[in-house]
Amino acid sequence: MRHGNKIRIKDIASMAGVSEGTVDRVLHNRGEVSEKSRIAVEKVLHEIDYSPNILARSLASKKQYRFVCVIPSFKEGDYWQQVDKGFDMAASEFAHFNILVDKKYFDQYDPQSFIDITISVLSENFDVVFIAPIFRNEAIDFTTTLDDLNIPFSFIDSVVEETNFVTYYGQNSSQSGYVGAKLLLDTLKPYSKILVVRTQRKSEGVSNQTINRYKGFSDYLNENNSFCETIEVMLSDDNEDTNKSILQNIFDNHPDIKAAITFNSKVYRIAKFINSTNRKDIVLLGYDTLQENIIYLKQGVISYLIAQRPDKQAFSTVQDMCNKLIFNKSIKKINYMPIDILIKENIDYYVGSKD
User: Fold this and answer.
1) Are 102 and 141 found together in one domain?
2) Which end of the chain has fewer CB atoms within 10 angstroms, the N or the C?
3) For 91-149, what is each residue's pLDDT tens digit?
4) Helices first, then strands: H and E counts in the chain
């Protein structure tokens, strides 16, 4: 039953020791069925974790639903690989509902790549879209067209709240940035210098997630009358030699930096540099359980990681859309994931971490 194996009335009849006609009458609540046979069928339905009504609808449905996922491309070990894995898990789990999950990938540092993918999607036949709205304005343009076509859509990882989305699964991005600021300031003395690292995108595009996390970070500093000084720097996504030079220059000019934070998953870049300089006095915070991040966390170079269970985000948003479209169930629109705070002492106990 699990992982995409389709259950047939014939299978249920065999498991219950009754005829296929008896199973059909129990599922549709029609005709005469002995109490003994009804109990036997309902026992099987319970064991395979399906209610009679839901299973009946699933078996009766002839429609195939095409769910399109518009997410960033990734390399082995990247954050978005975990999201991709979650969609694969959902595709397998809900295959018996005639669900086809089709993934489309764009360059998360290039807004035009996102636009090109959405144009391609709109030229095809589909029923639902799941979107990682990294580029806010471009996502609004795309979802406006989906509204005009009466195509439902959901967000993962970050949300554009003024759109007509069905569900959102991800962290409260602003709140996670707020928590990040609190973790740093709780360990720093007044007037300490904090390095704030961001990543340059093509066409000056800015990540929706990064904007919200940075806002939360700034809100905490302002609300708590922080006397800390922030020093902002922009790194490249594809030139590590340049990044090393930029960081070296910053630390040469500000040798008294006491903390650093980045709002994306590649905090290992900063950790690698700090480790090479043998600085032991810098509190470093970043996001997500990439393997390289975990290594530096265990070594004590990274002080904190904030994680958000990306595979569960993807799986749950597909599950909710199935419940809404196929079974007419009511679902929750905003679904915030826990803001998981990881340190070297608890990382081994965190679901999804590796040695």
Assistant:
1) yes
2) C
3) 998 887 788 999 999 999 899 999 999 999 999 999 999 999 999 999 999 999 999 99
4) 13, 12
146 is a domain residue: yes
Q: Quick one: 164 and 177 in the same domain? A: no
Per the structure, the count of domains in the chain is 3
Q: Which residues contact 33 (CB under 8 A, 6 or more apart)?
A: 22, 25, 26, 41
| Terminal CA-CA length for the chain | 32
The DSSP line for 180-249 is: HHHHHHTTS-TT-EEEEEEE--GGG---HHHHHHHHHHHHHHHHTT--PEEEEEEE-SS-HHHHHHHHHH
Which residues, 6 or more positions from 64, have their beta carbon under 8 angstroms from its beta carbon? 98, 99, 100
List the domain range (segments joined by +) for residue 35.
9-60
Q: What is the CA radius of gyration of the chain?
A: 25
Tell whether 84 and 137 lie within a shared domain: yes
Question: Any idea what the Cα angle at residue 214 is, between residues 351 and 192, rounded to 5°?
Answer: 95
In terms of domains, do 104 and 182 share one?
Answer: no
Percentages of the chain per state (helix, strand, coil), in multiples of 5: 45, 15, 35
Q: Which amino acid is at 1?
A: M
Residue after which a domain boundary falls, among 17, 39, 60: 60
148 located within any domain: yes
Q: What are 181-235's pLDDT values in tens digits? A: 999 999 999 899 999 998 876 655 567 888 899 999 999 999 997 789 999 999 8
Pairing of strands 65-72, 229-235: unpaired
Q: How crowded is residue 322: how many other Cβ atoms within 10 Å of its Cβ? A: 21
Handedness of CA 315, 319, 322, 325 (dihedral sign): negative
